[in-house]
Amino acid sequence: MDFPACDPSVAWPPMPQPSGFDARDEASDRALRPKRLADFTGQGHVTRNLTVAITAARQREEQLDHVLLSGPPGLGKTTLAHIMAAEMQAEIVETAGPLLEKPGDLAGILSALKPGSVLFIDEIHSLKRMIEEYLYSAMEDFRITIQLGDGAATQALTLNLAPFTLIGATTREGQLTAPFRSRFGIRERLDLYSVDELSRILSRSATLLDVDADIDGLETIAKRSRGTARYANNHLRRIRDLAQVSYGNHIDAAVANEGLAMLGIDEAGLTEIDRRILHCLARHHRPVGLKTIAVTVSEDDATIEDIYEPFLIQSGYLTKTPSGRQITARGYEHLGVVPPRGVDQQHLF
Ligand code: ADP
Q1: Of 7, 71, 144, 206, which alpha carbon lies 20 to 30 A from 218's?
Q2: Among protein residues, the one whose CA lies closest to atom 15 of ligand 1
């Protein structure tokens, strides 16, 4: 079989995404979010630890310690932040690392927090270092010092803040500095969901979306949702459209299969981009750098690393070596390609 060329200059045709995602989906995404810990499926170790921490803080009438949630996108970090605020009956204020450009942006948000509030900062790894350092005293002493004026006329103004809990979410915990990470008393990592957990998430979503789906239909979607709740819900929404238009609003395995095929998702749950990544690696027969892969498949390297790679690694199609990414024997098999002679078989597993 022919490989698509792994040449950064080769232009690829427009690529079907796993699911289209528009503003209507965003509203629906919010509507599908569980509101309490009891409705949050899976991540048992995380929910157990959070339940204990929240209950203890409430019993002592103390502020919950700062929380850092890490893991690939779409696993429920934002959802958990909202749930924690609800469980503590606290107001939640939401922002994201890239939105905080200068210390004044942060000072404005912090000084407006009501006592007991939750401040949720998504993508906290992308905070500028200067802003991160402002957060240190806010997290430790509920106080910040702002410099007013320039040069000799500079004055330092110290602001006392209301006690608050910072919840940070990150897809790249490794990018946080050690002093910053150590200021979070609670650090939890979310893992990809099992098929059974995703089936349960989908069953709840199907009820909320008012579509009739049987166990086989839900499991078919769950198996092909790359361990991610957001993908599973997105697929369900698209397949619901198909079910409504052509199958009397009922989803079984056949309807799910037809819908997934329309979305370009194969039997293993791989999307067109996953397959391009694997083809790129197969073409090279040796470890390939992230940047080369990114240019070849027309995605940025962070997206490859955060969204595509975790599932390809977990499914055994790709491995990371010190000199780059490499396709495994399983990856070759999935593409229907015989590993070329001379490829070091040891590196394929
Ligand atoms: P993240 O912040 O990690 O990117 P989100 O919290 O935005 O992920 O979750 C994406 C979507 O997946 C949410 O709208 C929610 O409906 C769904 N979701 C995530 N985790 C769960 C879960 N454990 N149970 C039910 N739905 C979930």
Answers
A1: 71
A2: 33
Residue among 230, 235, 306 to mutate when testing ligand 1 (max atoms within 8 A of CB): 230
Distance from the CA of 227 to the center of ligand 1, in angstroms?
12
Distances (CA, A) of 303 to 40, 274, 300: 26, 12, 5
Domain ranges of the chain: 23-189, 195-262, 272-348
Catalytic residue among 183, 224, 226, 230: 230
Q: How many CB atoms lie within 10 A of CB 218?
A: 25
Report whether residue 168 contacts ligand 1, using a CB cutoff of 6 Å.
no
Looking at domain 272-348, its CATH class is: mainly alpha
pLDDT tens for the chain, 349 residues long, are 443 444 333 333 333 333 344 556 666 777 889 999 888 999 999 999 999 999 999 999 999 999 999 999 999 999 999 999 999 999 999 999 999 988 888 889 999 999 999 999 999 999 999 889 889 999 999 998 877 777 777 778 888 999 999 999 999 998 899 999 999 999 999 999 999 999 999 999 999 999 999 999 999 999 999 999 999 999 999 999 999 999 999 999 999 999 999 999 999 999 999 999 999 999 988 899 999 999 999 999 888 988 899 889 989 999 998 889 999 999 999 999 888 775 545 454 4
207 part of the active site: no
Superfamily of domain 23-189: P-loop containing nucleotide triphosphate hydrolases (3.40.50.300)
- The atom of ligand 1 lying closest to the CA of 80 is 6
Q: Which two tokens stand for residue 169?
A: 């979410």
Q: Is 73 in the pocket of ligand 1 (CB under 6 A)?
A: yes
Q: Which of 29, 41, 47, 122 is catalytic?
A: 122
Residue 186: its H or E element: strand 186-189
CA distance 334 to 79: 34
The CA–CA distances, whole Å, from 48 to 40, 119, 135, 167, 216 equal 11, 22, 28, 17, 30
